[in-house]
Design goal:
The longest helix has 16 residues, at about 120-135. The two termini are about 35 Å apart. This protein has eleven helices and no strands. It is mainly alpha-helical.
């Protein structure tokens, strides 16, 4: 069977630099939620990294992270802090000229990392966040802060919390979802395999 080529002459089973793609690893990422990520379409233009709001904090920029996923460099990706700094703002995705969805790739890789047992401050924060959303349906930030950082974290952020509460940006009391039954149904649907 002849290898299919892209419109600009590069074989579709190879990256822009000619390296063979790691099909097994890409399939794993795609199966975890990156079905529409179009990982193979990445031409390494760097537009995603240029628009990333956290690029100055990341050790591996979104462009390089997609390249590492193409190559199957799982250990390097796993050791990177970039996975946990992505805010899923979708700027990288909205600016990509080829329809690649780097934010979907990052979210899928995060899920794989958590399934494989990676445990760091970010995964702990995410787990607490999800537990609190499941509990109440709406996040109550002081409770999140207490569970994540303890009383000392709340004390450190008290001034900011008061300012936010006075401006109506933070409720001093937990809010409730408007229709708890609908929320429970939506949560059950989201948790189905």
């Amino acid at each position: 069977m002849a290898v299919k080529k892209c419109f600009f002459g590069i074989k579709t089973d190879r990256q822009v630099d000619g390296d063979k793609m790691n099909r097994a690893f890409m399939d794993k990422v795609l199966a975890e939620g990156g079905e529409s990520a179009a990982i193979k379409a990445c031409m390494q233009c760097g537009t995603c990294s240029g628009g990333c709001t956290n690029a100055d904090l990341m050790d591996i920029l979104p462009r390089s992270l997609v390249l590492m996923v193409q190559r199957g460099e799982w250990e390097k990706v796993l050791q990177s802090n970039s996975l946990w700094l992505c805010t899923s703002c979708q700027i990288c995705t909205s600016r990509c000229p080829r329809g690649v969805r780097p934010s979907d790739v990052i979210e899928a890789v995060k899920a794989i990392a958590i399934q494989q047992g990676i445990n760091n401050d970010s995964t702990r924060f995410n787990q607490i966040f999800v537990e609190l959303i499941e509990k109440r349906g709406i996040l109550f930030e002081p409770e999140l802060m207490h569970k994540y950082g303890g009383i000392s974290a709340i004390r450190e952020q008290t001034k900011l919390g008061i300012k936010l509460a006075l401006r109506g940006k933070l409720s001093p009391l937990p809010a409730q979802v408007k229709d708890p039954q609908k929320f429970i149904q939506a949560l059950a649907k989201a948790n189905q395999p």
